[in-house]
Structure to design on (291 residues):
């Protein structure tokens, strides 16, 4: 759905695998994450996307850690919480934090794919694996989200993922209006171009909401495209460390990335949505009401 005057800005605070050796601003602990959430909120974000870490920086699905992150964040600001469910391991290990903490939104990967990073300098893959997200797991996550009253955010790495909603809607496992995130620039998924973003947008029901997630410095051209097309946007240290398209100015915080995105939005005549406006625009809290 196009919102010509408002834009929901999401900030992805940390991701699962990046380290402080790569970017010193990467948050690890619940307090670190909550402080970054506050900075993002104060800069204009209304949603924060969260992966949990141990205090040493390793990824974790421990519901206690997610609960502490939520508590620390809510002490500091009213931003909407969007928890990750994506990664390796059994679906049940990646859903208990949704059941217990009941975030407003949870990300849901919509299909399997090769997931890789290639180094032209080394002439080899930095990493590569099969990212498995079968329909059985997708249905399991949707059931947990329904029970928790959590809005699914459908993460689509390619056009086939976007078009996978049909059976889920027909079964009643997914409810309209649907919220999509188009992830672009991961090797194995759709490449990062404004033309491909327009293709993705053409696939979805007209009453849907969508945002773009650009990986690395391609993020900024995709943000510009999404703003022009009326979509929502996501920035943050999970996706991109840099304030410039050349990758020469590393951000000192998530707040700096949000500040740039907000400037871009206002330059196109779109104002960042407040938390309450984002809640209304995205239908948070309503999607399962009559289920």
């Amino acid at each position: 759905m196009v919102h010509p005057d408002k834009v929901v800005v999401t900030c992805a605070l940390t991701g699962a695998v990046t380290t402080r050796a790569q970017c010193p601003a990467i948050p690890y602990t619940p307090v670190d994450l909550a402080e970054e959430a506050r900075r993002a909120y104060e800069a204009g974000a209304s949603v924060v996307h969260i992966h949990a870490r141990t205090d040493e920086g390793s990824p974790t699905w421990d519901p206690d850690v997610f609960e502490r992150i939520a508590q620390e964040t809510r002490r500091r600001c009213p931003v909407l919480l969007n928890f990750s469910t994506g990664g390796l391991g059994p679906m049940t290990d990646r859903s208990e934090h949704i059941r217990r903490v009941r975030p407003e939104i949870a990300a849901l990967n919509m299909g399997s794919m090769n997931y890789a990073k290639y180094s032209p300098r080394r002439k080899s893959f930095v990493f590569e694996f099969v990212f498995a997200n079968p329909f059985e797991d997708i249905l399991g996550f949707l059931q947990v989200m329904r029970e928790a009253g959590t809005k699914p955010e459908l993460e689509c790495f390619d056009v086939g993922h976007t078009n996978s909603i049909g059976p889920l809607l027909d079964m009643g496992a997914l409810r309209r209006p649907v919220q999509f995130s188009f992830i672009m620039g991961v090797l194995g998924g759709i490449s990062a171009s404004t033309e491909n973003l327009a293709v993705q947008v053409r696939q979805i029901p007209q009453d849907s909401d969508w945002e773009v997630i650009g990986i690395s410095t391609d993020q900024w051209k995709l943000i510009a495209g999404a703003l022009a097309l009326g979509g929502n946007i996501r920035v943050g240290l999970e996706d991109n460390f840099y304030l410039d398209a050349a990758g020469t100015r590393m951000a000192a915080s998530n707040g700096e990335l949000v500040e740039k995105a907000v400037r871009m939005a206002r330059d196109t005549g779109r104002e960042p949505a407040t938390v309450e406006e984002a809640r209304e625009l995205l239908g948070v809290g309503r999607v399962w009401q009559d289920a």
Observations:
- Residues 6-282 form a domain with the TIM Barrel fold (CATH 3.20.20.70).
- The two ends are 23 Å apart (CA to CA).
